[in-house]
Amino acid sequence: MGKRILCQGIIAGAVIGGIVALFNKDARGYVVEKMKSTSNCAKQCIQNPTEAIGGVRKAVDSFNQRIASTTEGAINALEQVEKTIGKVVDKK
């Protein structure tokens, strides 16, 4: 019950905050610009689903490569720390 009320409060606050923000002319212009951009992107995805899927695949592959590279760097750093600690302990 408490979780449901909390979620409803968060959603209501976000909706009310969004409405209040739209009183600002710059914010309205930004929303219109982003809605047009999103609409164009959605139309392109609907018209060319193969191209959209290819783009998603490229993005996922790029993300996986970054994760792999970061993981390798972290493992290398940990190995260097382990070696350094080993040298310090051996000297004592």
UniProtKB/TrEMBL annotation:
Source superkingdom: Bacteria
Name of the protein in its database record: YtxH domain-containing protein
Protein's organism: Ornithinibacillus sp. 4-3
